[in-house]
């Protein structure tokens, strides 16, 4: 059982305050959706949790099982069990998925002896063309293929908590279903906790959230059950911003 705990988190970027006191607790096996208008600070929250350069935390804390995550470099946040699926996955010419996963497993003290079979089984689960796995990381992949690639990595690395920054952006309907179902399965098989940033109910139909939060202007302004997502789809954010 793991817990990602965010308390009173304030952060600025380029001298501008973006996060203004975020409180959020995600436990193993739980799915928390974060919805909110463009520019609300959703991606900033994911960047601050993972330690992307350029963001300054001005107050508050982020802990994973009591460990001060903000004190760690990004790679140690990852080996501690946090995993970010980026909204726009980075292309890394010259580095192949299996090489990257070998290093990542080694940094976690885990063997990569069965990596090839893990990769092919994960690729099969999300209908990811095994041929694409042999390409340099995300290079010349379509938007949907990149997200499948990111989902494959999540499947192999088995993090404790996954942050999905618009997993649904750039995905067609089939890819969205495959990726969302794989993540949903991990919440049962590995007790994965999920923080899913999204604009669309379609993702949440597969990745059934326990809780839906609305993030607006750097604060969580409402938290409710999954019915909140349907309400937002119908009425928009006007009542909350
Ligand atoms: P969301 O993901 O909710 O759409 P973001 O977290 O990406 O919003 O952005 C929140 C605000 O922070 C926006 O006004 C955005 O322009 C600003 N912002 C984010 N990153 C940077 C940056 N690197 N430099 C300047 N402004 C930024
Ligand atoms: Mg964003």
What characteristics describe this protein?
alpha/beta, Rossmann fold, 4-stranded antiparallel beta sheet, 12 strands, 30% strand, globular, binds adenosine-5'-diphosphate
How is the secondary structure organized here?
Elements: E1 3-13, E2 16-27, E3 31-35, H1 42-50, E4 55-64, E5 67-68, H2 74-79, E6 82-85, E7 92-96, H3 97-107, H4 115-125, H5 130-133, E8 136-137, H6 143-157, E9 161-165, H7 173-189, E10 193-197, H8 201-206, E11 211-216, E12 219-224, H9 227-235
Parallel strand pairs: 3-10, 3-11, 6-9, 9-10
Antiparallel strand pairs: 1-2, 1-4, 4-5, 7-8, 11-12
Helix pairs in contact: 3-6, 4-6, 6-7
This protein binds adenosine-5'-diphosphate and magnesium ion.
Work out the count of structural domains. Answer: 1
Overall 3D form: globular
Helicity, as a percent range: 25-40%
What would you call the quaternary organization?
single chain
How would you characterize this protein structure?
- The protein has 241 residues and is α/β, with parallel strands linked by helices.
- It has one domain: Rossmann fold, CATH 3.40.50.
- Helices cover 37% and strands 30% of the residues.
- It has helices at residues 42-50, 74-79, 97-107, 115-125, 130-133, 143-157, 173-189, 201-206, 227-235; strands at 3-13, 16-27, 31-35, 55-64, 67-68, 82-85, 92-96, 136-137, 161-165, 193-197, 211-216, 219-224.
- The chain has a 6-stranded mixed beta sheet, with helices on both faces.
- Helix 3 (97-107) packs parallel to helix 6 (143-157), helix 4 (115-125) packs across helix 6 and helix 6 runs parallel beside helix 7 (173-189).
- The chain is globular and about 50 Å long.
- 39% of the residues are buried.
- Bound molecules: adenosine-5'-diphosphate and magnesium ion.
- Magnesium ion (MG) binds next to helix 1.
């Amino acid at each position: 059982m793991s817990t990602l705990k965010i308390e009173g988190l304030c952060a600025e970027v380029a001298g501008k305050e973006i996060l203004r006191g975020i409180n959020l607790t995600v436990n193993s096996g739980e799915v928390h959706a974060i919805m909110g208008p463009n520019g609300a600070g959703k991606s900033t929250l994911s960047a601050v949790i993972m330690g992307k350069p350029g963001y300054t935390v001005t107050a508050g804390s982020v802990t994973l099982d009591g460990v001060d995550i903000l004190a760690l470099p990004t790679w140690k946040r990852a080996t501690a069990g946090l995993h970010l699926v980026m909204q726009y996955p980075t292309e890394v010419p010259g580095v192949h998925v299996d090489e990257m996963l070998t290093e990542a497993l080694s940094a976690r003290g885990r063997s990569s002896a069965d990596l090839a079979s893990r990769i092919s089984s994960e690729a099969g689960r999300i209908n990811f063309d095994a041929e694409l796995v042999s390409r340099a990381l995300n290079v010349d992949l379509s938007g949907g293929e990149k997200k499948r690639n990111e989902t494959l990595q999540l499947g192999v690395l088995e993090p404790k908590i996954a942050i999905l920054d618009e997993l649904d952006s750039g995905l067609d309907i089939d890819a969205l279903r495959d990726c969302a179902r794989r993540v949903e399965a991990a919440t049962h098989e590995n007790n994965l906790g999920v923080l899913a940033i999204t604009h669309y109910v379609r993702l949440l139909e597969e990745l059934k959230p326990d809780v839906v939060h609305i993030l607006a202007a750097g604060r969580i302004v409402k938290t409710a059950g999954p019915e909140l997502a349907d309400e937002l789809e119908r009425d928009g954010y006007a009542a909350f911003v």
